[in-house]
Design brief:
Layout lengths: L5 H12 L16 H16 L3 E4 L5 E5 L7 E7 L12 H16 L8 E6 L12 H6 L5 H5 L9 H8 L12 E9 L4 H5 L3 E7 L1 E10 L3 E2 L11 H18 L4 E10 L5 E2 L2 E10 L2 H21 L3 E10 L2 E2 L2 H14 L3 E6 L4 H5 L5 E6 L15 H19 L3
Parallel strand pairs: 3-4, 3-5, 5-15, 6-14
Antiparallel strand pairs: 1-2, 2-4, 6-13, 6-15, 7-11, 7-12, 8-10, 9-11
The structure holds zinc ion.
The site of zinc ion (ZN) has 5 residues, from loops.
């Protein structure tokens, strides 16, 4: 059975980790920074060495296509090489470099596929500098306009379009026009499940839906000692009651994740009843109906808690992203590849968002997960064992071969 060259893949991972390297071993390649551009160039150079036909679109997404015996839709494999501010070296980069390694393996072994194979690297997956995340794949899926993407304001006050022009990352090709037969993304799990079970490969069949909510509470500041309990309009108290309810949603709705990620009260003195509070809630569920139930119960409770305390409530839904069910055939290709290679595997839901969920709107898609040691990610300590990196790349190779078919 065909196998990737693990030594070569690890050398490339080491090389790319030098670009935007942090002193403590992590990396920082924020979208549309000089380091991001350098990382993109590294990928493009390998694509050129492989003789791929390179396409770069107006947002900087890059696809390198290897001809098949027949023209027509290509099997795409890849991920992203941008990173969060203090990142590890595997998030995203593994999916891109393993895709290039898989293509080089086809060259080494003289394999021609019936369908073309495209290696893709999406821009701004992390959304750390410019929201929203998964921007590159969202753009390829025609779900965000170039104007809206370019207008994004960075956390550093910059404008995306200016940085795109400054770094020269944009090209004149249109990735939306390239026909895609299927998409497979290899990624680190970023969670503890695979390592905890001792399983090598996660066959990802869905990505949970996400919805974000912001509540602003307006009460009345008053003296903590003098104001009777039954006349208070305590915005902080209501905020904490909502936060407690959020935890209950996560405990009573099947497969629900529920988090209060931001909570603040004003004026923030020990002896003053807070007159203002803000909280932001993150709800996730792989099932859209359950996610909606969680959202409705949250809003209903917040209204009840606020009116019970005579506190004003402003609610804003910041986002709603539908859960994505991956394509059965592509999921099956990943599963049978893992099986044929003799790796332990299990089906799973992705807890984080990924480019593949946007690509699912373009073509049948699925993902491969490999274990993250300690479930740690978005951290310089992020680590995936060499044998798991190799296993993931081999599964990617064989899932791609199954979808592209040997000529
Ligand atoms: Zn990622």
């Amino acid at each position: 059975m065909l196998r990737i060259n693990a030594g070569r893949l690890h050398r490339r991972l080491d090389d790319l980790a030098q670009i935007g390297a942090l002193e403590d071993g992590g990396v920082r390649r924020l979208a549309f920074s000089d380091a991001d551009r350098a990382g993109r160039d590294f990928v493009e150079e390998w694509m050129r060495d492989l003789g791929l036909t390179i396409h770069v679109d107006a947002l900087g997404n890059i696809a390198g296509v290897r001809d098949g015996a027949e023209d027509g839709p290509a099997v795409w494999i890849g991920s992203h090489t941008d990173s969060v501010g203090r990142a590890g070296r595997f998030d995203g980069t593994l999916g891109v470099l393993a895709a290039l390694e898989a293509v080089q393996t086809l060259d080494d072994e003289g394999v021609t596929t019936r369908r073309p194979v495209g290696v893709v690297s999406f821009v701004n997956e992390e959304g750390n500098r410019y929201a929203p995340g998964m921007m590159g794949s969202t753009y390829v899926a025609d779900m965000i306009s170039l104007e809206d993407a370019r207008a994004a304001t960075g956390t550093d006050g910059s404008t995306l379009g200016d940085e795109l022009d400054r770094t020269g990352m944009a090209g004149s090709d249109n990735l939306r026009a390239l026909p895609v037969h299927a998409f497979v993304e290899l990624h680190i799990e970023q969670g503890p499940v695979l390592e905890g079970e001792g399983t090598t490969i996660g066959v990802v069949e869905s990505v949970q839906g996400i919805t974000w909510h912001q509540f602003t509470l307006a009460g009345e500041s008053n003296h903590a000692g003098v104001t009777p309990m039954d006349t208070r309009r305590d915005a902080g108290y209501v905020a904490v009651a909502i936060a407690t309810h959020v935890r209950q949603l996560g405990q009573t709705i099947e497969r629900q994740r529920a988090t209060v990620g931001a909570l603040s009260v004003e004026p923030g003195f020990t002896n003053i009843i807070p007159d203002e509070a803000l909280l932001r809630v993150d709800l996730r569920n792989p099932d859209a109906d359950r996610l909606n139930e969680a959202r409705e119960r949250l809003i209903e409770f917040a209204e009840m808690a606020a009116s019970g305390e005579h506190v004003g409530l402003t609610h804003e839904q910041l986002s709603w992203i539908d859960p994505v069910q991956f394509n059965a055939e592509v999921v099956g290709a990943v599963e049978s590849a893992a099986d044929a290679l003799g790796y332990s595997h299990r089906r799973m839901v992705s807890g984080a968002g990924h480019d593949a969920q946007q690509m699912a709107a373009v073509a049948p898609s699925a993902m491969i997960f490999v274990p993250s040691v300690g479930g740690i990610s978005h951290n310089p300590d992020e680590f995936t064992r060499p044998e798991d990196v190799e296993a993931g790349a081999n599964v990617l190779l064989h899932a791609m071969l199954q979808l592209a078919e040997k000529a």
